[in-house]
Every structure is written in structure tokens, then in C-alpha cells.
Amino acid sequence: MTAKKVDFKRSKKWEQELNKCIRCGYCYELCPLFKSYTWESDTPRGKLILIYGMIADEIKPNQEIVDKIFQCFYCKNCSDNCSAGVPVTEVLTDARADLIEAGYDVKGTIVEIDENLCSVCGVCVPLCKYEALSIKDINKDQKKIEVDKIECRGCGLCVAACPSEAISQIEGCDITLPELHEKVKTLIQTYEDMKLIIFCCNWSLFPGMQLSESPTIIKAPYGIIVTMCSGRVAPELILNAFHEGAWGVMVAGCPPEECDHDGNYKTRRRLVLLKNMLKELNIEPERIKLEWFSTGESAKLKNAITEYVKELEKMGPIKKIEIQKMVGG
Amino acid sequence: MKIDIKKIEEIVGENNYSDNIADLYVYSSDASVHQAMPAVIVKPKTIEEVQKIVCYANKKKIPVTPRGAGSGTSGHTVPIDGGIVLDLKQMNRILEIRPEDMLVRVEPGVVDDDLNRALNQYGLFYPPAPASSRIATIGGEIAANASGVRSVKYGATRDYVLGMKVVLADGSLVNLGSNTRVHSAGYQLERLIVGSEGTLGIVVEATMRITPLPKFRCLAVANFNSLKDAGNTISDIITSGSQPSMLELMDKVGIIAVNKAMNLGLPEVGAIILFEADGNVKEAVDYEMKKMKGICEKHGGSGIEMSYDAAERKRLFSGRKKLFAALSRYKEGIICTDLADDMGVPNSKIAQTAEKIHEIAERNNVIMAVYGHCGSGVIHTKIMFDTTKKSQWKDAERVIEELYDYVHSVGGVTSAEHGIGLSKAPAWKKARSDILPMMKAIKKALDPNNILNPHKLMDAPDDWVKATNLRYNVRS
Ligand SMILES: Cc1cc2nc3c(=O)[nH]c(=O)nc-3n(C[C@H](O)[C@H](O)[C@H](O)COP(=O)(O)OP(=O)(O)OC[C@H]3O[C@@H](n4cnc5c(N)ncnc54)[C@H](O)[C@@H]3O)c2cc1C
């Protein structure tokens, strides 16, 4: 695609803020996108450098740059913890608006709707807390769901809720269902002692190792998989963890009134149903645990994990046969 | 210099290199004022991949700049001659923890805090941690001889290096040092790599000494009316034979900045000192703390708060931890630049250097903060000014010249812990002209084609402002 002329009128007002970023890079450690992609251009610092380069006219926008700018889950771990106080996501939103206005086609972490599959049932519309989804008339008889690409935060709740599986997000940053399945499998197969899988909301960060690995040294009986919202933990993900050999699954989300996306109400309902199903299969419903943690309550999370591992050790493993029945395999 | 991208792809695979503009531009800077574009970013995962890349680069005379987190403050990783940036963050495994031998073996991309999280489970720690420990890599710390808030008791990275595997400029792999605490067999080559800033070889594995975590840590903060009183207190604590495990200074500029950025509500006094003692016997820690408290009081220190509790210690330290970035918030229109950032001075010269810094700043229309691990003689500053104005860059240049002339005149050093890179090279070369030929000879012997992080340290340009583009948009 050829370069488009962009008027950076919104972004330019942030120039002084961008100067204030000392480029220390402390935001790497907190960025879920950096952890999955591992390129510095995926970090908050990287994105600010790109925006600065464009407004200073040192680099011309192109599709590669635009794609980077549109990758962000707005978890705000970066701006909330930036000691220089740079409002990273606000800068990003304005840069996005400038680029969209110039006519750039964007993907990033924004959801996409396959119009061939979408029945325009509208289930997704009220679900989106950011009002990024709306029903638009194409003509007199035809409607479609439109995505506001500036407002979409990439939380993916609509992806999990769409009955026609018409909404999708790009793969590669460990957020899609197949990618999460794969992560569960790898954890259980790599670590012999793995008993507990924890789906941990990105907002209640765990103070474990952040950017390094220790394949042989740390023999923890649990593994943490970070999801963008507990509302994205689909029931099949939990059943699959049992199928792979987990003794228990914990879903760690933000307290109901604190969730940015209102996703945790859905989680709660979903898990009640799932626990009933386990009971019918003669499996202790206690093998699923839902816990709430506020941002910064990582010590509480750590204690909850230790306690739950003890409980699971008392229960022992699940009998394989019943699980297979459950997932139909 | 033409890079054969196909060749690079063959070595590391298609997902582990990039020559797209988004990546090149982001990897063109670090935490310094400098910026220069590389031609390709390569992310090796194994020692063999590093060897193959370096071997190829050496044949074609392509510059290779190793990079950890890119938190260097003087342009160390800014690829002034372009070429390959070797991002080592993917080599991030802790390979072995050996409590029985008190050592760890790690890949170079392991992050300092992560190593300490892992060691914590064994009741051990790796002490040199710089303030940037949450992202700084062990490779970067070795190459910069990083040290941190506890260097006053525990020393710098160089004191923890036992051995390492290094890929040399021709791609060959050497095993330097040992697994033992001491060795005496000729040149201490592992030490030669410490502080080499990526110019002599690529560290691909490191064996580091570790130490037991002390059972008790007590941290205190004291307020002082003047910077001079605070500086003299620090000097006195050191000469008194006290054993602080941390002894930090923070001046009024720093206090105002962290108050603005983090809403801490610290009293805006002349200066603050943070002092800590640690050990396995509580009475011994109490004794050290009492002694240091007494010295503070003798110099007018007041409002002394003290705590053994981990959460409380974290609170007391929070302002200091984030000070550098917070300086950006000191005053609207004034930007915090990473210049003249880490001088080292003899213990007796702390107070007068601190005062001199403010005097030079005032005379040259800039603002400077004085803080740092002053117990080990480290004085951090940052030069704060309006970066959009050409005239202010001239002011900064004058400040740097005057400041380093002063520091050298009292027997101090250009860099105590961040290294030389590009921006500190002119002042350092002027002060240490006698050792430059020796350093150049070593470089030539180990890297005859000058491919490893070229034009840094002794080979850096004489004008730091023109050495590369500046990361700031300078207008009039
Ligand atoms: C906010 C802030 C606070 C800081 N506080 C401190 C402090 O308290 N104490 C301190 O000492 N420093 C401090 N620093 C400076 C910096 O963090 C340290 O120098 C750190 O050691 C750099 O690590 P890095 O992984 O970011 O390395 P980089 O910046 O990526 O690289 C630094 C140098 O090491 C070379 N290098 C990197 N990896 C390798 C390798 N594997 N083999 C060979 N060469 C390599 C590079 O070429 C470069 O020359 C601070 C920086 C910031 C931004």
C-alpha cells in the first residue's frame, strides 16, 4: 500500500509529553503484547517512539507502523505505572484517530466481523462497554455491524459471545481460543508437577518471573495464563485443561464492580453452570475456583494459589474416563 | 556494506529478524539523547546463532551492536554505523542455580529482577541490582559494569562475575574465568569484558556469584535543611566505619519532582538521605542504624522514620526508585535529559560536588537534580532544559564541560556506573588520554575489523551533540 498523507493534528499536541518519556523502558515488563511478540516495537515505549518519529517527520507512516499503533489492549499497565506520568493510551488513541482519518486500513488487536457469517443479531452491541459496535443500515433492507476502530479496546468479549462465530481477532498475541488451548497444553506437558492452571486477568498481575524463563529450576505445581479479561475464559478452555491432566482450574478476575469490560459477571454465570455439569459427572465442583483480585493484590493472589494447591493435593488427580466423556473425546 | 537478508533468515529463521521501518526506528534509540538507524534487527536464541551471525558480519565487515533492554543512558546501543542490532532478550533462561556453590549460570537476556525472584526461593540474592533492575539484562549489566543502591556494601557487577562464555568478533566461542571464587592464571579476561560496552565480544552465558539474603533489613529516611549538611552526613557515615547496605541522597529538585509525579507529599526540604543496614543479627542491624541516625542528627537531620517492615520500606523508597523518570514532571516546558548522569567522586568531596552542580546549572540556565548512591561516591544528575531550543543545547554543552572539569579536578570519574557510550566520551577521553592507546590496542587485537559496537568509548566522536541525530525535535 502506498503511503498516505496524514495530518497529525491530534497527535502533535502530545509532543511535549512524548519528550517527557525518558525511554527507560520500565513499561516492557508490564506489557502483555511485548511478552507475546518480544519485539521492542510492541512495547509502549516503542509505540511512543514511532508516534514521535511520525510527528517530527523523521519517519513516514506506513502499514507496518500503523499495525503496531493499533495493537494495544488498553490494559493501561504502562500509563498507570509510568513514573514520568506519560498518558500512553491517550496519546495512542489520538494517533489512531489521525491515521484512520487519513484512510489507513487497520487491524491490530481490533475485532473484525465476517459479514458472511454475521446474522446482525446484535448480541454483541450492548456487550461492548466502549460502544465500539453498532448496527448500521447498508440499504433499505440490509444492515451490518460496524466496528469503531478508535474505540475498540480489543478485549474480545464480543468474540467470546458471538453465536455465529463471526467476530475474530488476529492470532499471535496469545488471546485467541486456539492459542490459549495450546498454552494450556504446553504448560501441562512441559512441567511434570503441573496441577493447577490459573487463568489470570491481565489486570491482577502476578509477581512471578516477567521476562525471563527458568525451565528447570522453578518447579511450581501451577501455571499462569494471562487473559485479557476473565470474561474471555470460555468453558471449553477449562474443560480442556482437565482433559490435558490439570487437577484444578482457577479463574482470577477483577472484582465485579472493578472490571473494565463488565466481563466478570459473565464469567460468574458461566462457571456456576460449569460446576453443575461437573457434579453430574461425579467430579468435585471444587476443582473450579473463581476468585476476585484488585489491581495490585498480587500478594493475595499468591496466597490464594498456595491454599488452592494444598486443597487440590488432598483431592488428587481426576479420573481420566469421566473427562473424556465430558469433552466427547 | 550490503547485508544479505536471506543469509540472516537462514541463521535465525523468518520470525527472528526484521528490517521493517517500524522496528528499525524503535531500535535506533535507548534511554540516551542519541539516535541512529540500524539496517536489521536480529534476535538469536542460541549461542550457535550468535556465532554464525557474528562470523558472517565479520566476513562482510558489518557492524554488530549487542542490545539487552536498551536502558543504557549514554547511547551505548545506538548503532552509530548502522548494521546489525543483536537483540539478546530472547536468550533469557536461567540455566542453573547452585546454592551449594553459591553461583548461578544464566543466559545474557535474563532480567535482573527475574533472577532475584528465582533466587529468593532459595533465600539467596544477586546484589548488584541497578535501579533499572526490572528490565536491565545481566548481559547489559556486565557490559556496563552496572551497580546500584546496595553497591556501598555489596559492590558492582564486576565483583560478582566468576566466568562467562563470549563470542568473539570472528565468531569463535571462548570460556573465560572459572566456577571458583578466585583464580590466578594470567589475565583476568572475564573482567576485561566487564565494562566493555559490547566492543570486545558478545556475552552469551554468564556465571555469577550469589549471596544469602540477610535476615533483617532496616531502612530509614532523614530530612536535612541543606544539601551541604546531607552531603557531609554521608561522608561522615562512611568514615565512621558504619556499614550501610544503602546510603542514598535526593535533593530538593528531586523531592519536588517525585511529589509532583507521584503525589508522595514528602517534605520539600534541602535534601533527604535514605540509609539502610542489613544482617542476620537484629542487634547488629540496630546498632548500625542507631549509629547512622546519630550522625544524621549531628548534622541537623530531622523527621527520621525507620522501619524493618518490607511494605513500609518499599513505601519509604518509592520516591527514590522512580526519581529519574519523575524528573520529567519537575516543571512544565522543561525536559529531563540523560546527560552527565553518573559521576563518581571521592567520599570527602560529596557535599561540595553536590553544591557545585547546582551552581553550574544556575549559571548556565538549566536545572539539575542531585541524587544517587552517594555512599559509594556515585552522584547522579540529569540536565533539565527546554529541548526544543538550540540555545539550550549550547547551555547543556557548557554545563557538561564545566562539570566534568570540576569532577576530574577533585579526583572523580566521568562515569561511576552507567558507562561512557557516546555522550560521555569527549569528557572521558580528555581526562584519561593516557589509557586510550592501550584500550585501542586491545580493541584492535580482539576485533581487527572493528565490527563490534564500533565508534563507542575511546573511538566515539569528539562532539557528542553531532555524534548522531538527537532523539529530540530541536527547532530554533
Ligand atoms: C531509569 C534508569 C535507571 C538506571 N539506574 C541505574 C543504576 O542504578 N545503576 C546502573 O548501573 N545503571 C543504571 N541505569 C543504566 C542501565 O540500566 C544499565 O547500564 C544496565 O546495565 C543496562 O542494561 P540493558 O540490558 O538495558 O543493556 P543495554 O542498554 O541494552 O546495553 C548496554 C551495553 O551493554 C552492551 N550489551 C548488552 N548485552 C550484551 C551482551 N550480551 N554482550 C555484550 N555486550 C552487551 C550493549 O552493547 C551496550 O553497550 C539506569 C537506566 C535507566 C533508564
Largest interface (C-beta under 8 Å): A-B, 47 and 58 residues
Distance between the termini of chain B: 35 Å
The number of helical elements of chain B comes to 17
Major sheet size, sense and barrel closure of chain B: 8 strands, antiparallel
- Quote the beta fraction of chain B: 15-25%
- Strand % of chain A is 5-15%
* Average of per-residue pLDDT values of chain B: 96
The level of helicity of chain A is: 25-40%
Radius of gyration of chain B: 22 Å
Number of strands of chain A: 8
**In the CATH hierarchy, what is the class of the domain at 94-212 in chain B?**
Alpha Beta
Shape of chain A: globular
Strand order of the largest sheet of chain A: 6-5-7-8
Number of helices of chain A: 14
Stated plainly, the CATH topology of the domain at 94-212 in chain B is called: Uridine Diphospho-n-acetylenolpyruvylglucosamine Reductase, domain 3
Assembly state of the chains shown: heterodimer
Question: What can you see in these coordinates?
Answer:
The complex is a heterodimer of chains A (329) and B (476). Chain A is an alpha/beta fold and 329 residues long. Chain A folds into three domains: 11-101, Alpha-helical ferredoxin (Fumarate Reductase Iron-sulfur Protein, Chain B, domain 2, Orthogonal Bundle), CATH 1.10.1060.10; 112-168, Alpha-Beta Plaits (2-Layer Sandwich), CATH 3.30.70.20; 177-327, no CATH class. Chain A is built from 14 helices and eight strands. In chain A, the strands form three sheets. In chain A, strands 6-5-7-8 form a four-stranded parallel β-sheet, with helices on both faces. Chain B is of the alpha+beta class. Among the domains of chain B are: 94-212, Uridine Diphospho-n-acetylenolpyruvylglucosamine Reductase, domain 3 (2-Layer Sandwich), CATH 3.30.465.10; 216-327, Alpha-Beta Plaits, CATH 3.30.70.2190. In chain B, strands 13, 14, 15, 16, 17, 18, 19 and 20 form an eight-stranded antiparallel β-sheet that branches. In chain B, a hairpin with a 5-residue loop joins strand 9 (161-167) and strand 10 (173-177). Chain B is globular, with a radius of gyration of 22 Å. The interface between A and B is large, with 47 and 58 residues. The complex binds flavin-adenine dinucleotide. Flavin-adenine dinucleotide binds at residues 30-31, 65-73, 76-77, 88, 108, 130-132, 136-137, 139-141, 143-144, 146-148, 197-198, 202-203, 324, 417-418, 453 of chain B.
